[in-house]
Amino acid sequence: MLSAAKRCFSSTRFNPYKVTVLGAGGGIGQPLSLLLKLNHKVTDLRLYDLKGAPGVAADLSHIPTNSVVKGFAPEDSGLQGALKGTDVVLIPAGVPRKPGMTRDDLFSINASIVRDLASAVAENAPDAAVLVISNPVNSTVPIVSQVLKGKGVYNPKKLFGVTTLDVIRASRFISEVADTNPTQEKVNVVGGHSGITIIPLLSQTKHTNLDAATKDALINRIQFGGDEVVKAKNGAGSATLSMAQAGARFANSVLQGLDGEADVIENAFVDSPLYKSEGIDFFASPVKLGPHGVEKIYSIGEVSSEEEELLAKCKETLKKNIEKGEKFVTQA
């Protein structure tokens, strides 16, 4: 007769998922891979990087969770092996920000990296959900979309720009101002994933009585919170650990959606109808996740007059960022 513990375990059903991290040896990639190794939904974890991925995989493989970890290098068709038949691809590959750099300053370097990885995804895992972390997300997501379109495999429901870091920062920062529990703070952060394109809708929270100076400082900190980390690391890196947590959280939500769990909602930068009439093809807002990826894209909801002004500035910049990414591929 089975013990209670064994009966409990044997009756638990795990849907197995293959998950690939492209850029697994980097500052985001390593902690992200660790968090994915701890996710019971991930049973096949593939790690790829130009160097170091096999070592990271060997290290993680000693952790006793229900998954197999394999590391892949460029030689011997490593990229193909890492991607073949995978369900979810996370792309944190690229160079980190340094002091004085904006996310857009990274474009010239990271654009080529993301383009080439997107091409490999199209050829080896055309049905996978693709989660783009590489900055600048406002431009790299359109790059991936253009590459996938060129290969004839673009599925707008399965392409995501991960903006979760903005959401968790907003929860943390507003809790510090209001002296509350950050795990209970929910902030709808919309727009894009760079500077003034990040719009935290504070009017939709319970903290509508903040004075103007406090509110302005809070919004600025949410928009430019990454600068704090870059400065504190003295040029040695950018936000890696918090970004890994954000990426792992969003990946878990995508897996929950694929599993058919109900009411899985996260904010994400996706191919959106909200402002297409204004020439903005991608926008971050709350998204319902399901077995086919994006099931529903929600509007941003009611906003204050101040937030309307922030939104206008956001859209102006965001449109340029998106066009920059699209042109990088189409004019190559």
From TrEMBL:
Annotated Lactate/malate dehydrogenase C-terminal domain residues: 163-329
Residues spanning the signal sequence: none
Domain Lactate/malate dehydrogenase N-terminal: 18-161
Family membership: Belongs to the LDH/MDH superfamily. MDH type 1 family.
InterPro entries cross-referenced by the UniProt entry: L-lactate/malate_DH (IPR001557), Lactate/malate_DH_C (IPR022383), Lactate/malate_DH_N (IPR001236), Lactate_DH/Glyco_Ohase_4_C (IPR015955), Malate_DH_AS (IPR001252), Malate_DH_type1 (IPR010097), NAD(P)-bd_dom_sf (IPR036291)
PANTHER family with a match to the protein in the record: MALATE AND LACTATE DEHYDROGENASE (PTHR11540), MALATE DEHYDROGENASE, MITOCHONDRIAL (PTHR11540:SF73)
One GO location term (cellular component): mitochondrial matrix
Pfam families: Ldh_1_C (PF02866), Ldh_1_N (PF00056)
GO molecular function terms listed in the Swiss-Prot or TrEMBL record: L-malate dehydrogenase (NAD+) activity; mRNA binding
Gene3D superfamilies xrefs: Lactate dehydrogenase/glycoside hydrolase, family 4, C-terminal, NAD(P)-binding Rossmann-like Domain
Cited CDD domains: MDH_glyoxysomal_mitochondrial
Matching SUPFAM superfamilies: LDH C-terminal domain-like (SSF56327), NAD(P)-binding Rossmann-fold domains (SSF51735)
Listed EC numbers: 1.1.1.37
Protein name listed in UniProt: Malate dehydrogenase
Record's subunit section: Homodimer.
Residues bound to NAD(+): G23, A24, G25, G26, G27, I28, G29, D49, N110, I133, S134, N135, M243
